[in-house]
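Researcher: Re-running this chain for the archive, since the previous output was lost when a drive failed. Same request as before.
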Amino acid sequence: MQFKSVQYTGLGQGPRLIITGAVHGNETAGTKAIERVLAELERGDYEIVAGTVTFVPVTNPLAYAKGERAGDRNLNRNLCPTDDPQEFEDHVANWLCPLLARHEVLLDLHSFNAQAEPFVMVGPRNNAGPLQPFRHAEQERAMARILGVKRYVDGWLATYGAGVERRMQTRDPSERDKVVRYGIGTTEYMRSTGGYALTLECGQHLDPQAPDVGYRAIKNVLAHFGMIDAPRPQPMPLAEMETLSMVVVHDKASEGDRFIKTWSSFDPVKVGDQIGVRADGTPVLAELEGRILFPDVNAKPGHEWYYLAQPHQDFERYAD
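Model: Regenerated structure tokens:
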């Protein structure tokens, strides 16, 4: 196993951008998109005229070689350097985290299992709080709107953190920081270094259009920052956007808890809709109108089972 990155630097001033693919080894859309852009740069179809861009086609080579989500564990959780690497992903983190910290902006390309529209995960609003202090909401949301997708989701770490606080009521409080760190992935780590970042979910893993979504996003980002000689992309009109905020996570309480049907991310729910049933027969009902996210039929007791998200108008605050 070895790690590979390819870097181009233009003559003009510009941002330090990093674009990653295959953080999960079975998510190859980003790898294909990056390789397409690298081939065009190599042929001289266009060049980087300003700033620095680093491409990482395969971030987790072990998982990629296996064709599976993880090598030893999920790289996109508990991402931080360690002096005592035990799993392969620890070695990736020891290489990747310093590389991220040398950049200002991250575009992380992923895909997903179920059939659904591509979407982008954005970070928090500007804040000085203890969980994820941030000051680049305007820049991050402006970048999100030129990726070419219409669905936007925020609120991941805050909602995850609220779930951690609830679990800590019945667990050793000294474990809190460790559990919170489990919510830290590539974008969260990038924000912790003072930069900003987006996760673009390009589509279903095997969708032949998913690499095109990633390719278009890369070209748009390069043009957005003036890093290539191309027209600046127009932001997605607010009227065409679906903006969602994750607001609550529900845990699986026991092995006997089950969903009443096969749920997919972004399935709509209304107040009172039955989502599942607890092992003792208690129905699990939606407490809000919105969409279900990341339902996990294989969740272990005491871990996230599903999230709920609600529509919001946050992007209007950052519109031109």
